[in-house]
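Cont'd.
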Amino acid sequence: MPGQFVSLYPKDGSRLLPRPISLCGIDRDKGELRLVYRVAGAGTKEFSGLRSKDAIDVLGPLGNGFPVEPGKKALLMGGGIGIPPMLELAKALHKANSAGSDKAAAGLIQTVLGYRDSGMFLREEFAPWGPVYWATEDGSAGTKGNVLDAVREHKLDAEVIYACGPAPMLRALKAYAAEKGIRCWISLEEKMACGVGACLACVCKSTEIDGHSQVHNKRICKDGPVFPADEIEL
Ligand SMILES: Cc1cc2nc3c(=O)[nH]c(=O)nc-3n(C[C@H](O)[C@H](O)[C@H](O)COP(=O)(O)OP(=O)(O)OC[C@H]3O[C@@H](n4cnc5c(N)ncnc54)[C@H](O)[C@@H]3O)c2cc1C
Ligand code: FES
């Protein structure tokens, strides 16, 4: 499912914990997953040295993924390393919307991407699924600012928002969606340890009480990473 992730295990035994990376592409016919990641530290640096046919331990797919709601005008918002999962979501939504005809899907998927600067990875790959808008923090391309600045500049509207990105971006989107009365799904990219719901390293505060532990907590790896924005305290 778009929005799910896999946990990748570094070979170096000094780095025991797996690194979660979202599914950027799913090819069921070929049995392939595509992962797009930024080299952030030692684990991802090790992965970046892998070559074709090298083997790596992978656990997954994990997490719940985005609910694909066809027939609704959608805004897909990705910020930084939150951009890769939105690409598979765009494809899945297009497939569900079109149900055999591209005409039915026209105009339903709008994507807004937020980058630090003009190194705009994956941007062109969103174009087949609908209009794409972008913002850069340094103003070197597109709207200067963040994804919401781009939404306002282009006067975009939607019936549903799907988003993945840093916490300040998601916090702003949650407020925006509440103000406009738009249904909003957010994917949280919190630091994780076990990745399968056992260690509680990834809990976030929720508005609902968890039936098991009776506290206002959700495990991002197991209950998420995708949540309705109004269920999560950011
Ligand atoms: C569900 C999920 C999906 C993710 N999908 C992607 C993806 O598709 N592409 C991608 O590039 N990254 C993704 N990430 C972030 C990725 O997991 C981290 O960048 C990676 O684990 C860092 O490992 P490392 O050993 O290279 O760096 P570390 O040495 O562990 O950390 C290096 C730096 O990255 C920061 N960092 C570590 N974990 C995270 C995190 N979860 N989010 C943000 N910063 C972090 C650390 O604070 C530190 O500053 C995802 C994270 C989660 C939880
Ligand atoms: S990472 Fe262990 S419970 Fe989520």
